[in-house]
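Good morning,

Attaching, inline, the backbone tokens for the sequence recovery test we're adding to the shared suite. The designed sequence is right after.
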């Protein structure tokens, strides 16, 4: 792979040397409210030079990590199936080369493509899911492949009790009923996360970690397609990321930044910082 022309700050190692490979999935064709998440990955790269490579929270620096930025995939906006196939193939390549994939969305549907490739390599994996929304609909307006259905599709792969959901505060009644019988849902905040992570760590369970940035309160992060009041703040999210980092993370993503919705650029700056802390927290 060739290095992207513009990389996320500090992520300019050679591919052969890197332990982590970052790539963008600029897709938002199933967005149900406000579009624009397809521009999230490029905005995060460009605006990342407004933050430092060093994290005072973790006393770690991106310059001390070996991270390769593959750039954005060129995805077919007219076909969810084609886009997901390309994401799956990119993730599989990274995994087969012995590296950890971190994906920047894009809407949340892109997670399903990455999860399929990681599940192929780690069939015993669990998913830790931060989000305002359940994403457990069986279909949305007849479409099975929608950002409103992504965790339902993931459940069809991993099965009952292997999806751990936090910060959930929105969904239709049927989604919450489904969660009661099939997922481990923690509504509104991160209560119970430490216990989940301790158990996964004790059993050496591989974990796919997906962060929908709308888990954050709109007062912190308004640049997203479906904002929901009542979310967490940045320090709470950072603390939660550090808890998850103690598990065996085998793949991760952040998604649902729609940068043009927040013309101040504050939401993009928050997303950059979340990505920096996520990369630095992973002990690979």
């Amino acid at each position: 792979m060739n290095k992207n022309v513009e990389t996320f700050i500090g992520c300019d190692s050679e591919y052969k040397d890197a332990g982590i490979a970052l790539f963008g999935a600029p897709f938002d064709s199933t967005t149900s409210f406000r579009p624009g998440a397809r521009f999230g990955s490029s905005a995060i790269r460009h605006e990342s030079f407004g933050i430092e490579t060093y994290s005072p929270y973790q006393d770690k620096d991106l310059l001390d990590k070996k991270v390769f930025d593959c750039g954005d995939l060129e995805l077919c906006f007219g076909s969810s199936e084609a886009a997901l196939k390309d994401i799956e193939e990119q993730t599989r390549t990274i995994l087969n080369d012995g590296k950890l994939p971190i994906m920047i969305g894009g809407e949340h549907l892109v997670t399903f493509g990455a999860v399929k490739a990681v599940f192929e390599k780690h069939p015993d994996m669990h998913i830790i899911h931060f989000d305002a929304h359940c994403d457990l609909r069986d279909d949305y307006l007849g479409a099975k492949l929608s950002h409103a259905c992504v965790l339902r599709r993931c459940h069809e792969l991993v099965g009952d009790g292997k999806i751990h959901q936090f910060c959930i505060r929105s969904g239709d009644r049927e989604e919450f009923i489904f969660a009661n019988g099939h997922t481990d849902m923690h509504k509104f905040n991160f209560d119970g996360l430490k216990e989940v992570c301790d158990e996964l760590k004790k059993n050496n369970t591989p974990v796919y970690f997906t962060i929908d940035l709308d888990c954050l309160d709109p007062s912190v992060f308004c640049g997203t397609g479906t904002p929901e009041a009542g979310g967490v703040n940045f320090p709470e999210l950072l603390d939660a990321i550090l808890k998850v980092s103690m598990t065996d993370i085998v793949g991760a993503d952040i998604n649902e930044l729609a940068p043009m919705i927040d013309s101040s650029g504050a939401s993009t700056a928050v997303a950059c910082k979340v990505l920096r802390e996520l990369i630095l927290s992973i002990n690979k």
